[in-house]
Amino acid sequence: MTTESGIEPETLIGISEDEIARFVVERFLPDVEWSELDPDYDLLATGVVDSLGVLHIASWLGKQHGITLTGPELTAGNFRSVRTIRATAERAEAGGAA
Q1: 69: how many CB neighbours lie within 10 A of its CB?
Q2: Which residue has better confidence, 16 or 98?
Q3: Distance between terminal CA atoms of the chain?
């Protein structure tokens, strides 16, 4: 079965919001349980993640999942929350623009 974009579901990345939340909490919020992190919590507005944090997350996506993010994808808005990080990773994996 293919999606509307023509991509087979099996070809989409296997990264979950839970996995991203675990990384974010481990790296940036060590006093919080990953399961308590709302996937829409604004990591940028609250100061949890800054521009260096964006680079750490992008590096982790590359090392753990082979996802290469280019300049246009490395905008702060693409790393605003766990949910937007996952969407960014999925677009990059599918070859789409950010």
Answers
A1: 22
A2: 16
A3: 25
